[in-house]
Amino acid sequence: MKDFIYHIGTVGTPWGEAEKQQWLSEQQIKRSYKDEVVTPLQQFLPDTAELLNYGTLDYSAFHLPVYELFAVRSKNWQADKPIVLVTGGVHGYETSGVQGALKFIKEQFSHYSTKVNLLVLPCISPWGYETINRWNPKAVDPNRSFGAESQSEEASLAMAFVRQHQGEVLVHIDLHETTDSDNSEFRPAKAARDGTVNHNWNIPDGFYLVGDTDKPEAGFQRAIIEAVQKVTHIAEADEEGCLIGEKLAQFGVVNYPKRALGLCGGMTDAKFVTTTEVYPDSPKASPEQCNAAQVAVICAGVDYALA
């Protein structure tokens, strides 16, 4: 597997402001958050849901847009029901994370809102969505920023909003993708930014999950894998028994210490936690399958937790 040396910075030296500015100057708007996320939310919002603005990302200091952030919440919120949290677009470039959350809202929200209190944040990083990017404009990864000293407004605003809701968060499903651009762009850029050496891993061909090392809940993960198998194929471990450099915990599942790493999946005390990893670059998976796989995860996860 070929390792790429990134074109910005000096190998072994972390980026300063000049390198971050150079990186930012190369980013371009490639699609519309308003057209692809906000407008659909407004158009197909179920009667059982309410659309809430939970914050504003003001990047005008970078000569970039101001983004309004939206969540969809059960209109009939009941204190005696558990909370199911769904997050998408923490990494804005991971398209089915956002579009899968929208598809769930449109097709399944009303069904599950009779059973649980639903809270869906479909696109936590709108600038990342528009520029098809992993970071925010400050070259910060929101999905390493869900902790006490967050450097990401995207993460801080999401955490503050979720904390406003009283009740037990039973399930948290964070919707992601693993793409070929992880090796061609994002991992080399991270190594350059941090002044470290990048070693690419094999991109798994297929869907997999990242559970939480501290609460793996193997049965929960297995139920989700079985549901997704009906929609798209599951990634096989590589010759070293790994996915993305991590030893397989069970078929289609690796575990990370989510809270310690500042991952979105670690921001609550939910018993049942998982992060999806869809592979949109597979010749065996269409965008429609990728979105459907994300929906299958949410449904299967909630069904298991309630059973």
UniProtKB/TrEMBL annotation:
The keyword Hydrolase applies. Pfam families: AstE_AspA_cat (PF24827). Its cofactor is Zn(2+). Signal peptide: none annotated. The keyword Nucleotide-binding does not apply. GO terms for molecular function: hydrolase activity, acting on ester bonds; metallocarboxypeptidase activity; zinc ion binding. One of its GO terms (biological process) is proteolysis. InterPro entries: AstE_AspA_cat, Peptidase_M14. Keywords: Hydrolase, Metal-binding, Zinc. Residues 29-307 form the Peptidase M14 domain. Belongs to the peptidase M14 family. This is DUF2817 domain-containing protein. It comes from Rheinheimera mesophila.
